[in-house]
Design goal:
- The chain has a domain of 72 residues.
- Helix content is 52%, strand content 11%.
- Strand 2 and strand 3 form a beta hairpin.
- The longest helix is centred in the middle third of the chain and has 22 residues.
- The chain is flat, with a radius of gyration of 21 Å.
Length: 110
């Protein structure tokens, strides 16, 4: 546990530094963008599950499919992400990086 905790803390701090992104399309408000994103994620989830189905069976007696449970879950996660991004791009959206607001120090008083 002592070896894992520093690694997890480092991973958490590194994740804070990732830039935020959002989908944008000229002339479309946030509500319509959110609705399109939900529709794309739902369609991507269904397609990814059809491609990488849940391995049926029991973990105690072995799954009925080749590979391990993690294989299906990991591939399904990445496939779902790629399919949702593909769907949003086909609808005309572009993934843009959100720039943090610039903070300036107040001018010193004279």
């Amino acid at each position: 546990m002592r070896r894992i905790l520093p690694f997890l803390m480092l991973l958490g701090v590194a994740a804070c530094g990732l830039p935020q992104t959002r989908w944008e399309k000229p002339g479309v408000d946030e509500k319509a963008t959110a609705a399109d994103l939900v529709a794309c994620r739902h369609a991507a989830s269904q397609e990814a599950f059809a491609t990488y189905p849940f391995p049926y069976g029991s973990p105690f007696f072995g799954y009925r499919r080749f590979g391990s449970f993690g294989y299906y879950e990991e591939n399904r996660f990445y496939a779902e992400s790629r399919l949702a991004n593909f769907c949003m791009r086909n609808k005309g959206y572009e993934l843009v990086t959100v720039k943090p607001p610039q903070t300036t120090a107040p001018a010193p008083e004279k």
